What does this fold into?
Amino acid sequence: MAKRQLKDKVIIITGASSGIGRATALALAREQARLVLVARRRELLDQLVEQIRSRGGSASALVLDLRLRENVEAMITATVGQFGRIDVLINNAGFGYYGSVENTPQSVVREIFDLNFEAPLVAAQRAIPIMRAQGGGHIVNISSVAGKRGLPFSGIYSSTKFALNGLSEALRLEVRSDNIDVTIVNPAGTESEFGQNIRRGDVALPFKPIGYIQPAEAVAESIVACLKSPKVEIYPYRKSRLFAWLNTIAPSLLDRIMLRVVRDRLSARVIEGTHPRIP
Ligand SMILES: NC(=O)c1ccc[n+]([C@@H]2O[C@H](COP(=O)([O-])OP(=O)(O)OC[C@H]3O[C@@H](n4cnc5c(N)ncnc54)[C@H](OP(=O)(O)O)[C@@H]3O)[C@@H](O)[C@H]2O)c1
It folds into this structure.
């Protein structure tokens, strides 16, 4: 099948001010897509828009906090108002939480699900009728290998990505006849601001990603390739597919391997009293 052209496609990228979102914006600008870049930090978005425009590309910024449902809806409304269509929606904005499952406060659970799960859900719900009316579209949900296997002290973050994967799998069948593709992207550890923006819970050690760390540009290139030739699920670091596969066929073996890798973190355990224990 012929590869899709991305020139002039209207593409929303959430979380475009840094990391994977920013790298994806720059990669898609090279494809001459028309970009709507969304995040909270205005200065970073404005700099990125300027950089893209100075190279002859098309981009505009929407400064929105996507933890709020009305802002997700405003993102869709503003894009349709400006361009009259949405060809691609890349749900990328997200943050991590580093803390034990036992002591994660309810407020953190609510907030991380608001951004990592509910924002992609609401964005998709609002974008689908528009994509259907225009004859098709593509929804890309940035998940994680942590959405394939729960990671210690990232259990709540992992849960948001598991939820996003379940949603994406169901959705892609529901909208197949509308010519709307739904892709799950499972990056491995990636160079970005993720580690410095992570919310710290009750773990004594600094956050340290597990395994290979890939450049954000590599993830961006995988996303661009997938927009040209849609796939249901991609692993930008190919070997991480083995991790998911091993968890499916031999989870207790993976437990033993992971226990070795994270032994220092587990033995550091939690900082007592950092958070109130949930009764
Ligand atoms: N880095 C990794 O190791 C890794 C691995 C697998 C999956 N991922 C996933 O990849 C995605 C991108 O993360 P990243 O690694 O590129 O991290 P990052 O550099 O921290 O980027 C996160 C982006 O989300 C935006 N964001 C955060 N809170 C927001 C909010 N309330 N409203 C709107 N935008 C918000 C941030 O912009 P503002 O702060 O300006 O709002 C930023 O642009 C996330 O979904 C993450 O879970 C990352």
Notes: The chain has ten helices and eleven strands.
